[in-house]
Amino acid sequence: MPELPEVEVTRLGLVDRLDGASVRAVRLGKPLRWPLGIAPQALVGARVGRVQRRGKYLWLPLGEAGGLLLHLGMSGSLRLEAAPTVTPAGPHDHFEMDTDRGRLRLTDPRRFGAVVWSRTMACAPAATLLGRLGVEPLSADFDGGVLHAGLRGRRMPIKPALLAGDVVVGVGNIYCSEALFEAGIDPRLPAGRLDPARCERLAAAVTDVLQRALAAGGSTLRDFRDVHGLGGEFQRQARVYGREGEPCPRCAGPVQRIVQGQRATYFCPRCQPG
DNA sequence: ATGGGTACCTGTCTGC
DNA sequence: TGCAGACAGGTACCCA
Description:
- This protein starts with a helix and ends in a 7-residue tail after the last strand.
- A hairpin with a 5-residue loop joins strand 3 and strand 4 (67-71).
- Helix 1 (4-18) packs across helix 6 (196-215), helix 3 packs across helix 6 and helix 5 crosses helix 6 (196-215).
- The model has no long low-confidence stretch (mean pLDDT 96).
- By secondary structure, it is an alpha+beta fold.
- A 4-stranded antiparallel β-sheet has the order 1-6-7-5, covered by helices on one side. Strands 2-3-4-8 form a 4-stranded antiparallel β-sheet, with helices on one face.
- It contains 6 helices and 10 strands.
- 24% of the residues lie in helices and 19% in strands.
- The chain is globular and about 60 Å long.
- The chain binds a DNA duplex through helix 5.
C-alpha cells in the first residue's frame, strides 16, 4: 500500500475539499475486504466532516450518519473529481460517493482495501481495527524510548517487528528498509536486542524517512495516486529499496535482497552491521 | 504472548 | 509468441 506518507498525502488532498460536503449518492462495485455494513442509501444527505488518519486508515466523519473507515490495501487510491471532469466507473472502482463538491472514488485493482461503516471511531468495527495500532510516528509521542519499550523481549527480527505496526504504525515495506538503512541497523537483528542508542537512531530514521516521503508526495511503484491522480516521487530517492545488486550509496558495495516473513528486505550488509 | 504461515485478489514482469 | 511462476505498497486471522 500506500504506506503512511501515501495515506497522509491522500488525506491532505481531501480534508479541505470534502469538509462540509453533502452526500448525494453512494455506489458500490465489487466486494472489498469487508462489507460496508450499512445500506448505501442511509448515508445520503449526510454531511462530511474533516477527514482524519490513524496509521494507514482514513476516517471520514459523516455527522449523525456515523462515518466511514477506509483502507487503501496494497493497490488502492482515492480520487476526488469535480463535476465537469467525472469519468465513468472503471472495472477497479469499487466505491463511489457523490457529493456537492465532487465524486470521491476508490480504485483498487487487488481489492485488499476496505470501506467500513462505523457509528464512531471508538465503536466496533472501527475500534476493533484501530485497537491494535501502535504510536503515530510523526507525533511528539514517538521516540527511541517508545521503540525500546515496545520491542523489549521480542525475538522476531527488527524488520518484520517494525512492519507489524503494533509498536509504531505506518512503516510499510519500502520505508522499513529505508529507515533501517538510514539507522545502520541489520534488519535481521532480533528486535529485543536493540539497545537504547540504536532505538533512538531508528526512531529518528523512521521520522526522517516518512517526512521526506511525505514531502515527495509519497512513493508510486505502480498504483498509488493522490486525489488529483498524480503519482509520488519518493521511490527515486530510495537508497536501498528495489535496488538489489546496485551500489550502496554509502559504501558502494552491492545492495542485498533477502526475504523476511514473505516480504522482500533490501539492505547493505556492510553499512548495517547491527 | 509470540510468531509463523495463510489468505484475500489482480496485474505485470521474467524466464523458459 | 505463449505460458507458468514469481512478485507486488497490507493486514486479519488461524494455529502451534
